[in-house]
Amino acid sequence: MKALLLENIHPVAVENLERAGFEVELRSKSLSEDELVADLPGVTLLGIRSNTHITPRVLDAATDLKAIGCFCIGTNQVDLVAAGERGVAVFNAPYSNTRSVVELVIGYIISLARRLPEKTEKMHAGVWDKSAKGSHEVRGRTLGIIGYGNIGTQLSNVAEALGFYVIFYDIADRLAHGNARRMKSLDALLAEADVVSIHIDGRPGNLGMFGEEQFAKMKPRSLFINAARGFLVDNDALRKHIESGHIAGAALDVFPIEPKAQGDAFESPLQGLDNVILTPHVGGSTQEAQEEIGWFVSGKLGDFIRSGSTALSVNLPAVQPPPLGAGARLALLHDSVPGVLAELNNLLAAEGVNVTGQYLATAGETGFVVTDVTDVPPTTLEKIAGNPHTRWVRAYPA
Questions:
Q1: Which of 62, 103, 197, 380 is positioned for an S-S bond with 225, CB 3.0–4.6 A?
Q2: 158 and 135 in one domain?
Q3: Rounded to whole angstroms, how far apart are CA atoms 227 and 239?
Q4: In tens digits, what is the pLDDT along the chain, a chain of 398 residues?
């Protein structure tokens, strides 16, 4: 079995997959759609980060592909519906780089509040500008967090420890941490926050959610942070409000269009502005986070291939069976229609196969059942595969 890992995924992932019996190819850059179509036949596992996009055309060409690992938080670069329809499991790392992103955001806020980008630029130019003008402490300021998930909540905790008052807005019901306050609307948050930081996901409905209208509603001389998704924010509108002085500073780690390879040219309407920090999508790019992500995602891919576990898959029903003991295991991905499980068990009984454990989950039109049995005669697999509602069936150990 072959695993292809793109975009400089941490070597710990290579080690994990090689121990699991995979031949691993590691590449430093992302691949275009045409390159993926040409290179994926024969690949069982694909590892990507945020710059490689998996389309239905790519999935149609990847006839041997069983799973995709997104070695990052986001999965909007993968057509999850198309992958699910083809039975390709997708996994990500929803927690592994949380702390790294939070620390970067805290660094942004302090740097912008003290206007450090301007200070360091002048020092490099040989200008000594020792002045407190425009420089502020963050203690006692109000931080407004848009999106109170894994990153938003940890940012809330760290910021409060630094002396911030924290407010947040989320469309989902979220438990407030510490003394943080939930705001009833985004407008209410924007009117009160001295710093606004976005931490929402990349679902299509969030495209362009923060633009001219939202910037106009922010407090005068407030700060703006985006370390979530580049396409959430209208950067032309942000430039206008920075140039007018309404927004005192901004920091961005993500952009609507990002270079695909190290050293490629980068352009943004925010270049050249005072008190603006631009970083190349490095929120999760610490050695600690990348190692944790490499370990976590490669482990999920290995568990799926070795034992049929779909725990924390983002597009298939989640089943986490116990470790495989004596005997064998069947994993069946099927259409979620009445009678499939009964047909499976009737067939196993007719074949004289004894069931020792069974684990089922459904999601939408898809069902996934893992069945532990005494053994799996080849004829049994063939009959299960022949059912019109079977998408795929696999036996373990292979």
A1: 197
A2: yes
A3: 17
A4: 999 999 999 999 999 999 999 999 999 999 999 999 999 999 999 999 988 999 999 999 999 999 999 999 889 899 999 999 999 999 999 889 999 999 999 999 999 999 999 999 999 999 999 999 999 999 999 999 999 999 999 999 999 999 999 999 999 999 999 999 999 999 999 999 999 999 998 888 888 999 999 999 999 999 999 999 999 999 999 999 999 999 999 999 999 999 887 888 999 999 999 999 999 999 988 999 999 999 999 999 999 999 999 999 999 999 999 998 889 999 999 999 999 999 999 999 999 999 999 999 999 999 999 999 999 888 999 999 999 999 999 999 87
Nearest to 254 by CA among 151, 326, 333: 151
Q: How far is CA 28 from the centre of its chain?
A: 19
The Cα 385–Cα 398 span in angstroms is 16
Which distant-in-sequence residues (6+ apart) come within 8 Å of 11 by Cβ? 26, 294
Q: Are residues 166 and 259 in the same domain?
A: yes
- 365 included as an active-site residue: no
Full strand arrangement of the beta sheet holding 181-182: 181-182, 165-169, 142-146, 195-198, 222-226, 247-252, 276-278
Which of 49, 241, 281, 334 is the catalytic position? 281
Cβ atoms 70, 77 nearer than 8 A: yes
* Residue of 103, 258, 291, 351 with catalytic role: 258
| Residue whose token pair is 């004596």 | 326
| Own/partner long-range contacts of 296-299 (Cβ < 8 Å, ≥24 apart) | 296/93, 296/95, 296/96, 297/13, 297/47, 297/69, 297/70, 297/71, 297/91, 297/92, 297/93, 298/12, 298/13, 298/16, 298/17, 298/47, 298/69, 299/16
d(CA 390, CA 186): 45
Give the structural domain span for 380: 317-397
Beta partners for 46?
4, 68
Residues 53 and 155 both lie in one domain: no
CATH classification at residue 255? 3.40.50.720
* 298 in Cβ contact with 12 (< 8 Å): yes
d(CA 341, CA 262): 50
> CA nearest 282: which of 22, 49, 42?
49
- The reply to whether 288 belongs to the active site is no
